[in-house]
Write a structure and sequence with these properties.
Distance between the termini: 56 Å
Number of helices: 8
Shape: elongated
Helix content: 10-25%
Strand content: 25-35%
Order of helices and strands: EHEHHEEEEEEEHEEEHEEEEEEHHEEH
Length: about 325
Protein backbone atom coordinates (compact mmCIF):
# COMPACT_ATOMS: atom_id res chain seq x y z
CA UNK A 1 0.00 0.00 0.00
CA UNK A 2 1.19 3.50 -0.81
CA UNK A 3 1.38 6.14 1.88
CA UNK A 4 0.00 9.63 1.48
CA UNK A 5 1.49 12.78 2.95
CA UNK A 6 -0.14 16.20 2.99
CA UNK A 7 0.98 18.24 0.00
CA UNK A 8 1.97 15.20 -2.06
CA UNK A 9 0.71 14.27 -5.50
CA UNK A 10 0.56 10.49 -5.79
CA UNK A 11 0.27 8.57 -9.06
CA UNK A 12 -1.37 5.16 -9.06
CA UNK A 13 -1.68 2.76 -11.97
CA UNK A 14 -4.76 0.58 -11.61
CA UNK A 15 -3.66 -2.95 -12.53
CA UNK A 16 -6.02 -5.89 -12.14
CA UNK A 17 -3.11 -8.33 -12.39
CA UNK A 18 -1.07 -6.55 -9.73
CA UNK A 19 -4.05 -6.38 -7.40
CA UNK A 20 -4.59 -10.13 -7.75
CA UNK A 21 -0.90 -10.84 -7.04
CA UNK A 22 -0.95 -8.65 -3.92
CA UNK A 23 -4.31 -9.97 -2.76
CA UNK A 24 -5.49 -6.38 -2.88
CA UNK A 25 -8.55 -4.58 -4.25
CA UNK A 26 -10.80 -6.60 -6.54
CA UNK A 27 -11.84 -4.91 -9.78
CA UNK A 28 -14.11 -3.38 -10.96
CA UNK A 29 -14.17 -1.08 -7.93
CA UNK A 30 -15.58 2.32 -6.98
CA UNK A 31 -12.99 5.09 -7.10
CA UNK A 32 -13.50 6.16 -3.46
CA UNK A 33 -13.26 2.58 -2.18
CA UNK A 34 -10.14 1.95 -4.26
CA UNK A 35 -8.35 5.01 -2.88
CA UNK A 36 -9.26 4.19 0.72
CA UNK A 37 -7.85 0.67 0.24
CA UNK A 38 -4.67 1.72 -1.56
CA UNK A 39 -3.85 4.77 0.57
CA UNK A 40 -4.02 3.79 4.26
CA UNK A 41 -3.91 7.41 5.48
CA UNK A 42 -7.13 8.22 3.63
CA UNK A 43 -10.55 7.24 4.93
CA UNK A 44 -13.34 6.70 2.42
CA UNK A 45 -14.97 9.96 3.55
CA UNK A 46 -11.69 11.82 3.05
CA UNK A 47 -11.26 10.23 -0.41
CA UNK A 48 -14.77 11.35 -1.35
CA UNK A 49 -13.99 14.95 -0.31
CA UNK A 50 -10.80 14.95 -2.39
CA UNK A 51 -12.69 13.60 -5.40
CA UNK A 52 -15.49 16.16 -5.03
CA UNK A 53 -12.92 18.99 -4.71
CA UNK A 54 -11.10 17.98 -7.91
CA UNK A 55 -7.97 16.66 -6.22
CA UNK A 56 -8.32 13.25 -7.90
CA UNK A 57 -7.88 12.75 -11.65
CA UNK A 58 -8.60 9.57 -13.59
CA UNK A 59 -6.62 9.59 -16.85
CA UNK A 60 -6.15 13.36 -16.38
CA UNK A 61 -9.89 13.99 -15.96
CA UNK A 62 -12.04 14.64 -12.87
CA UNK A 63 -14.36 11.79 -11.93
CA UNK A 64 -17.11 10.97 -9.48
CA UNK A 65 -16.63 8.91 -6.32
CA UNK A 66 -18.91 6.24 -7.84
CA UNK A 67 -16.74 5.94 -10.99
CA UNK A 68 -15.88 2.25 -11.43
CA UNK A 69 -12.26 1.37 -12.11
CA UNK A 70 -11.73 -1.61 -14.39
CA UNK A 71 -7.92 -1.63 -14.70
CA UNK A 72 -5.39 0.29 -16.76
CA UNK A 73 -6.40 3.73 -15.46
CA UNK A 74 -3.80 6.22 -14.20
CA UNK A 75 -4.84 8.08 -11.07
CA UNK A 76 -3.34 11.30 -9.78
CA UNK A 77 -4.20 12.14 -6.18
CA UNK A 78 -3.21 15.44 -4.56
CA UNK A 79 -3.50 15.53 -0.76
CA UNK A 80 -3.70 19.15 0.49
CA UNK A 81 -2.45 20.02 3.99
CA UNK A 82 -5.07 19.54 6.75
CA UNK A 83 -7.24 22.56 7.45
CA UNK A 84 -7.01 24.05 10.95
CA UNK A 85 -9.88 23.28 13.31
CA UNK A 86 -12.09 26.22 14.25
CA UNK A 87 -12.01 25.22 17.91
CA UNK A 88 -9.60 27.05 20.22
CA UNK A 89 -6.77 25.19 21.92
CA UNK A 90 -7.04 25.57 25.70
CA UNK A 91 -4.28 24.94 28.23
CA UNK A 92 -6.42 22.72 30.44
CA UNK A 93 -4.64 20.24 32.75
CA UNK A 94 -4.64 16.82 31.09
CA UNK A 95 -3.21 13.47 32.18
CA UNK A 96 -1.52 11.95 29.12
CA UNK A 97 -0.67 8.33 29.91
CA UNK A 98 1.06 7.53 26.60
CA UNK A 99 1.63 8.99 23.15
CA UNK A 100 3.54 8.42 19.93
CA UNK A 101 3.22 9.52 16.28
CA UNK A 102 -0.03 7.56 15.79
CA UNK A 103 -2.04 7.91 18.99
CA UNK A 104 -2.33 9.16 22.54
CA UNK A 105 -3.95 7.65 25.63
CA UNK A 106 -5.36 10.02 28.23
CA UNK A 107 -6.90 9.60 31.66
CA UNK A 108 -9.93 11.91 31.49
CA UNK A 109 -11.10 13.60 34.65
CA UNK A 110 -14.75 13.49 35.67
CA UNK A 111 -16.63 16.65 34.68
CA UNK A 112 -14.90 17.12 31.32
CA UNK A 113 -16.95 16.79 28.11
CA UNK A 114 -15.14 14.59 25.59
CA UNK A 115 -16.11 16.32 22.34
CA UNK A 116 -17.67 19.70 21.47
CA UNK A 117 -21.37 19.52 20.76
CA UNK A 118 -24.57 21.53 20.94
CA UNK A 119 -23.87 24.54 23.14
CA UNK A 120 -20.44 23.26 24.23
CA UNK A 121 -17.38 24.61 22.40
CA UNK A 122 -14.95 25.25 25.27
CA UNK A 123 -13.46 23.25 28.10
CA UNK A 124 -13.71 19.90 26.31
CA UNK A 125 -11.13 17.15 26.00
CA UNK A 126 -10.63 18.12 22.34
CA UNK A 127 -9.82 21.72 23.33
CA UNK A 128 -7.26 20.41 25.82
CA UNK A 129 -5.76 17.97 23.30
CA UNK A 130 -5.27 20.74 20.73
CA UNK A 131 -3.10 22.52 23.31
CA UNK A 132 -1.16 19.50 24.54
CA UNK A 133 -0.60 17.46 21.35
CA UNK A 134 -1.81 19.78 18.57
CA UNK A 135 1.61 20.06 16.92
CA UNK A 136 1.86 16.28 16.49
CA UNK A 137 -1.56 15.76 14.86
CA UNK A 138 -1.52 14.39 11.32
CA UNK A 139 -5.07 15.36 10.42
CA UNK A 140 -8.37 13.48 10.54
CA UNK A 141 -10.53 13.56 7.40
CA UNK A 142 -8.73 16.65 6.17
CA UNK A 143 -8.95 18.60 9.44
CA UNK A 144 -6.16 19.15 11.93
CA UNK A 145 -7.94 17.61 14.89
CA UNK A 146 -7.64 14.61 17.24
CA UNK A 147 -9.60 11.51 16.27
CA UNK A 148 -11.94 10.51 19.08
CA UNK A 149 -12.02 6.70 18.84
CA UNK A 150 -14.55 6.22 21.65
CA UNK A 151 -16.12 8.61 24.14
CA UNK A 152 -16.67 8.77 27.86
CA UNK A 153 -19.65 10.57 29.34
CA UNK A 154 -18.94 13.93 30.98
CA UNK A 155 -19.15 12.57 34.53
CA UNK A 156 -17.27 9.33 33.77
CA UNK A 157 -13.52 9.32 34.43
CA UNK A 158 -10.82 7.12 32.93
CA UNK A 159 -8.92 5.96 29.88
CA UNK A 160 -9.51 7.10 26.31
CA UNK A 161 -7.44 6.45 23.18
CA UNK A 162 -7.05 9.30 20.68
CA UNK A 163 -5.97 8.82 17.05
CA UNK A 164 -3.60 11.31 15.42
CA UNK A 165 -4.08 10.09 11.83
CA UNK A 166 -6.88 8.74 9.63
CA UNK A 167 -5.18 5.34 9.41
CA UNK A 168 -4.86 5.06 13.20
CA UNK A 169 -8.49 6.11 13.67
CA UNK A 170 -9.79 3.45 11.27
CA UNK A 171 -7.63 0.75 12.84
CA UNK A 172 -8.69 1.55 16.39
CA UNK A 173 -12.37 1.86 15.49
CA UNK A 174 -12.16 -1.52 13.75
CA UNK A 175 -10.52 -3.02 16.87
CA UNK A 176 -13.52 -1.92 18.91
CA UNK A 177 -16.04 -3.00 16.27
CA UNK A 178 -14.41 -6.45 16.00
CA UNK A 179 -14.37 -6.69 19.83
CA UNK A 180 -10.58 -7.03 19.93
CA UNK A 181 -10.03 -4.01 22.17
CA UNK A 182 -10.58 -4.46 25.91
CA UNK A 183 -12.47 -1.74 27.79
CA UNK A 184 -12.90 -2.53 31.47
CA UNK A 185 -14.79 -0.28 33.90
CA UNK A 186 -15.25 -0.09 37.66
CA UNK A 187 -18.64 1.05 38.95
CA UNK A 188 -20.30 1.42 42.31
CA UNK A 189 -24.00 0.69 41.90
CA UNK A 190 -26.90 1.23 44.25
CA UNK A 191 -28.31 -1.93 45.79
CA UNK A 192 -26.78 -5.27 46.80
CA UNK A 193 -26.37 -7.52 43.76
CA UNK A 194 -26.49 -11.17 44.87
CA UNK A 195 -25.52 -12.70 41.52
CA UNK A 196 -21.72 -12.90 41.31
CA UNK A 197 -21.51 -12.27 37.58
CA UNK A 198 -23.62 -12.06 34.46
CA UNK A 199 -24.21 -10.59 31.03
CA UNK A 200 -26.75 -7.99 29.96
CA UNK A 201 -27.72 -8.14 26.30
CA UNK A 202 -30.46 -5.58 25.77
CA UNK A 203 -30.86 -3.20 22.80
CA UNK A 204 -30.34 0.51 23.50
CA UNK A 205 -31.94 3.44 21.71
CA UNK A 206 -33.58 6.79 22.40
CA UNK A 207 -36.00 6.85 25.31
CA UNK A 208 -39.55 6.96 23.87
CA UNK A 209 -40.57 10.07 25.87
CA UNK A 210 -37.37 11.55 27.36
CA UNK A 211 -35.60 12.24 24.06
CA UNK A 212 -32.31 13.36 25.62
CA UNK A 213 -31.95 10.01 27.36
CA UNK A 214 -31.18 6.49 26.15
CA UNK A 215 -33.01 3.36 27.29
CA UNK A 216 -33.63 -0.32 26.57
CA UNK A 217 -36.05 -0.29 23.63
CA UNK A 218 -37.17 -3.07 21.25
CA UNK A 219 -35.89 -1.29 18.13
CA UNK A 220 -32.58 -0.18 19.69
CA UNK A 221 -29.07 -1.16 18.65
CA UNK A 222 -27.65 -4.41 20.10
CA UNK A 223 -25.72 -3.81 23.32
CA UNK A 224 -23.85 -6.27 25.55
CA UNK A 225 -22.28 -5.63 28.94
CA UNK A 226 -20.54 -8.23 31.13
CA UNK A 227 -20.35 -7.64 34.88
CA UNK A 228 -18.67 -9.24 37.88
CA UNK A 229 -19.06 -8.43 41.58
CA UNK A 230 -15.86 -7.20 43.24
CA UNK A 231 -17.30 -6.38 46.66
CA UNK A 232 -20.65 -5.98 48.38
CA UNK A 233 -21.43 -3.25 50.89
CA UNK A 234 -24.51 -2.67 53.06
CA UNK A 235 -26.30 -0.59 50.40
CA UNK A 236 -24.00 -0.75 47.37
CA UNK A 237 -22.12 -3.18 45.13
CA UNK A 238 -18.72 -2.63 43.50
CA UNK A 239 -18.61 -4.07 39.98
CA UNK A 240 -16.13 -4.75 37.22
CA UNK A 241 -17.72 -4.34 33.77
CA UNK A 242 -16.50 -5.21 30.27
CA UNK A 243 -18.05 -3.73 27.15
CA UNK A 244 -18.63 -5.72 23.98
CA UNK A 245 -20.41 -2.83 22.30
CA UNK A 246 -20.11 0.91 22.78
CA UNK A 247 -23.58 2.39 22.82
CA UNK A 248 -24.26 5.82 24.28
CA UNK A 249 -24.59 5.61 28.12
CA UNK A 250 -24.47 1.80 27.81
CA UNK A 251 -23.31 0.83 31.31
CA UNK A 252 -25.48 3.43 32.99
CA UNK A 253 -28.59 2.35 31.05
CA UNK A 254 -28.01 -1.38 31.50
CA UNK A 255 -27.38 -1.14 35.23
CA UNK A 256 -30.40 1.10 35.76
CA UNK A 257 -32.51 -1.32 33.72
CA UNK A 258 -31.41 -4.16 36.02
CA UNK A 259 -32.40 -2.09 39.07
CA UNK A 260 -28.83 -1.33 40.17
CA UNK A 261 -28.15 2.21 38.89
CA UNK A 262 -24.70 3.80 39.11
CA UNK A 263 -24.23 5.75 42.34
CA UNK A 264 -24.45 9.50 41.75
CA UNK A 265 -25.93 9.19 38.25
CA UNK A 266 -28.29 12.16 38.07
CA UNK A 267 -29.92 10.94 34.83
CA UNK A 268 -30.54 7.20 35.22
CA UNK A 269 -30.50 6.70 39.00
CA UNK A 270 -33.99 7.26 40.36
CA UNK A 271 -33.16 5.75 43.74
CA UNK A 272 -31.54 7.61 46.66
CA UNK A 273 -28.19 8.78 45.21
CA UNK A 274 -29.41 10.10 41.86
CA UNK A 275 -29.22 13.80 42.63
CA UNK A 276 -26.47 16.41 42.77
CA UNK A 277 -27.04 16.96 46.48
CA UNK A 278 -26.69 13.26 47.27
CA UNK A 279 -23.68 12.97 44.96
CA UNK A 280 -21.95 15.80 46.79
CA UNK A 281 -22.95 14.35 50.16
CA UNK A 282 -21.04 11.21 49.20
CA UNK A 283 -18.04 13.33 48.21
CA UNK A 284 -18.26 12.48 44.51
CA UNK A 285 -17.36 14.94 41.75
CA UNK A 286 -19.20 12.86 39.14
CA UNK A 287 -20.95 9.52 39.15
CA UNK A 288 -19.14 6.41 40.41
CA UNK A 289 -18.07 5.02 37.02
CA UNK A 290 -14.42 4.80 35.92
CA UNK A 291 -12.78 3.43 32.75
CA UNK A 292 -10.00 1.55 34.54
CA UNK A 293 -8.36 -0.62 31.88
CA UNK A 294 -7.81 -0.32 28.14
CA UNK A 295 -5.91 -2.54 25.72
CA UNK A 296 -5.60 -2.70 21.92
CA UNK A 297 -3.06 -3.46 19.21
CA UNK A 298 -0.96 -0.61 17.88
CA UNK A 299 -2.05 0.50 14.38
CA UNK A 300 1.53 0.57 13.03
CA UNK A 301 3.58 -1.93 15.02
CA UNK A 302 0.83 -4.44 15.81
CA UNK A 303 2.11 -4.59 19.39
CA UNK A 304 -0.42 -5.10 22.19
CA UNK A 305 -0.69 -1.98 24.35
CA UNK A 306 -2.22 -2.26 27.83
CA UNK A 307 -3.06 0.61 30.18
CA UNK A 308 -4.54 0.90 33.66
CA UNK A 309 -5.74 4.00 35.52
CA UNK A 310 -6.33 3.97 39.30
CA UNK A 311 -9.64 5.11 40.70
CA UNK A 312 -9.89 8.91 41.11
CA UNK A 313 -9.50 10.21 44.66
CA UNK A 314 -13.19 10.95 45.26
CA UNK A 315 -14.24 7.44 44.16
CA UNK A 316 -11.49 5.80 46.23
CA UNK A 317 -12.37 7.92 49.28
CA UNK A 318 -16.01 6.83 49.09
CA UNK A 319 -15.02 3.16 49.00
CA UNK A 320 -12.78 3.64 52.02
CA UNK A 321 -15.61 5.39 53.87
CA UNK A 322 -17.97 2.49 53.12
Amino acid sequence: MESSTAGDTIQLIVSAEEEREKGGVSLPQRLDNYLAARLPNLSRARAQKLIESGFVLVDERPAKASHRLKGGEILKVTVPPPEPLELVAEDIPLSIVYQDADLAVVNKASGMVTHPGAGVSKGTLVNALLSHIGESLGGINGTLRPGIVHRLDKDTSGLLVIAKTDAALRHLQEEIKARKALRRYIALVEGVMMQDDGTISQPIGRHPTRRKEMWVVPNGRPATTHYKVIKRFQRFTLLQLNLETGRTHQIRVHMSYLGFPVVGDVVYNRKTTGSLSQRHKLGLLGHALHAAQLSFTHPTTGRLLEFEAPLPRDFQALLEAL
